[in-house]
């Protein structure tokens, strides 16, 4: 099978290209002169808003498909003839995974088998990246988690991602695929979906600052996360696929703070005291919480030369400023 275009450009196929990471990864790869293809199920009414925001919507070739549909994956590979395959598709909202356990397990877990089979049956030289998650650590078995920390997922989403991780390892070990699993800790950006806590806080702080909202209702303020910037994290994904040998890597900042502290930083960025506006709503607590995660990206630093560039304070400022701008332009209500 012909791998590169006559001009020698590398070719990447991204599932989940319309999501937060998909958009940043597409921009990164286009900047490296890749030809970028994205699998899109065309579910949302404005699915391409993130690609538009990063001004790459015209440069990504969209292919219709769904990771739960093997034949659509085979067609996408035939059309794109990728040298690299990034599997970012998922039902990625942890809280929803208790309401939709079977869908979550199908899309975020089982479907990885479809993707790996599609690669195995078409072109085993395709390099594969699987978007695994720190949610596999769940009830953490070590104070700082790395590639050797045992898994104890706490949600259907976490269980699905543990399956996806081991399937990736298995195809590497049993079929010799260049298949890597990135165990990424939380990463955020102005393109984060509004259901996630960081975006809920940045939008809430911005609305309250502009007098459009009085209170912000949140769940567990004591949960701690190791939050980084999505733009930094997609670079780690790409670096994994440039290695001679595939492997698994934790990607994290090595600093964790509570949801409460995230609120404090966000509200203080607009000169407000979060304690006057944030209200705890017990209905927003999870059925089983991941109380704390903290990652060590020492292996990624040593082997990939990767380290995060953006501080938490810079990330929060970027998100709050973006939401202020959206409100002022009427893009967000
Ligand atoms: P998003 O939720 O923003 O994006 C998920 C993407 O998957 C969307 O483009 C969505 O398309 C697509 N998708 C959903 N179901 C299917 C399906 N059946 N077939 C094809 N595409 C589908 O997630 P992120 O960008 O934040 O995350 C990217 C990946 O990384 C996900 O796998 C996530 O689980 C994982 N991850 C994310 C972390 C984070 O902190 N952001 C941390 C660790 C892992 P549509 O909008 O049409 O539904
Ligand atoms: P998470 O992210 O579950 O870590 O998964 P989320 O932002 O949803 O929750 C983080 C923590 O905040 C607490 N929390 C709230 N969460 C939400 N969504 N809404 C609230 O109102 C609220 N109040 C408190 C939660 O209880 C939790 O402890 C993200 C996703 O991107 C996954 O796909 C990814 O794999 C992991 O990060 C790593």
Query: Uncertain regions: pLDDT < 50 for 5+ in a row?
Result: none
Helices, by number, come to 11
Strand tally: 13
CATH level 4 superfamily of the largest domain: NAD(P)-binding Rossmann-like Domain
What is this entry, summarized?
By secondary structure, the protein is of the alpha/beta class. The protein has helices spanning 20-31, 49-53, 70-80, 96-99, 101-122, 156-175, 197-209, 230-241, 259-269, 298-304, 312-329; strands at 11-15, 35-40, 60-64, 84-87, 127-133, 179-184, 187-188, 216-218, 224-225, 228-229, 248-251, 257-258, 278-280.
Structure notes:
By secondary structure, the protein is an alpha/beta fold. It has 2 domains: 2-187 and 228-251, Rossmann fold; 193-226 and 256-291 and 310-329, UDP-galactose 4-epimerase, domain 1 (Alpha-Beta Complex). The chain contains 11 helices and 13 strands. It has helices at 20-31, 49-53, 70-80, 96-99, 101-122, 156-175, 197-209, 230-241, 259-269, 298-304, 312-329; strands at residues 11-15, 35-40, 60-64, 84-87, 127-133, 179-184, 187-188, 216-218, 224-225, 228-229, 248-251, 257-258, 278-280. Helix 1 (20-31) links the parallel strand 1 (11-15) and strand 2 (35-40). Guanosine-5'-diphosphate-rhamnose binds at residues 92, 94-95, 133-135, 185-186, 195-198, 200, 218-220, 223, 225, 259, 284, 286, 289-290.
Explain the layout of strands and helices.
Elements: E1 11-15, H1 20-31, E2 35-40, H2 49-53, E3 60-64, H3 70-80, E4 84-87, H4 96-99, H5 101-122, E5 127-133, H6 156-175, E6 179-184, E7 187-188, H7 197-209, E8 216-218, E9 224-225, E10 228-229, H8 230-241, E11 248-251, E12 257-258, H9 259-269, E13 278-280, H10 298-304, H11 312-329
Parallel strand pairs: 1-2, 1-4, 2-3, 4-5, 5-6, 6-11, 7-10, 8-13
Antiparallel strand pairs: 9-12
Bound molecules: NADPH dihydro-nicotinamide-adenine-dinucleotide phosphate and guanosine-5'-diphosphate-rhamnose.
């Amino acid at each position: 099978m012909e791998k590169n275009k006559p001009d020698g450009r590398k070719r990447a196929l991204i599932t989940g290209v319309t999501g937060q990471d998909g958009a940043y990864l597409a921009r990164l790869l286009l900047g490296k002169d890749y030809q970028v293809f994205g699998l899109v199920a065309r579910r949302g009414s404005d699915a391409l808003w993130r690609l538009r925001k990063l001004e790459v919507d015209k440069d990504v070739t969209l292919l219709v498909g769904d990771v739960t549909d093997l034949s659509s994956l085979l067609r996408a590979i035939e059309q794109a003839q990728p040298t690299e395959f990034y599997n970012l598709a998922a039902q990625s909202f942890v809280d929803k995974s208790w309401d939709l356990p079977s869908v979550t397990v199908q899309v975020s877990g089982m479907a990885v088998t479809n993707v790996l089979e599609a690669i195995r049956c078409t072109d085993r030289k395709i390099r594969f990246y699987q978007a695994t998650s720190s949610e596999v650590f769940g009830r953490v078995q070590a104070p700082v988690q790395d590639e050797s920390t045992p898994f104890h997922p706490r949600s259907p989403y976490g269980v699905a991602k543990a399956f996806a991780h081991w399937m990736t390892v298995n195809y590497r070990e049993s079929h010799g695929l260049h298949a890597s699993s990135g165990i990424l800790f939380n990463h955020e950006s102005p393109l984060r979906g509004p259901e996630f806590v960081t975006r809920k806080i940045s939008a809430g702080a911005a609305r309250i600052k502009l007098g459009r909202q009085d209170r912000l209702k949140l769940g567990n303020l004591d949960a701690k996360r190791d939050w980084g910037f999505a733009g930094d994290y997609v670079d780690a994904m790409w670096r994994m696929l440039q290695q001679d040998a595939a492997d698994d890597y934790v990607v994290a900042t090595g600093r964790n703070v509570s949801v409460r502290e995230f609120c404090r930083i966000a509200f203080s960025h607009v000169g407000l005291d979060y304690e006057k506006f944030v209200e705890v709503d017990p209905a927003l607590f999870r059925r089983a919480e991941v109380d704390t995660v903290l990652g060590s990206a020492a292996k990624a630093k040593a082997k990939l030369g990767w380290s995060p560039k953006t501080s938490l304070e810079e990330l929060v400022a970027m998100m709050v400023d973006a939401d202020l701008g959206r409100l002022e332009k009427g893009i967000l209500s």
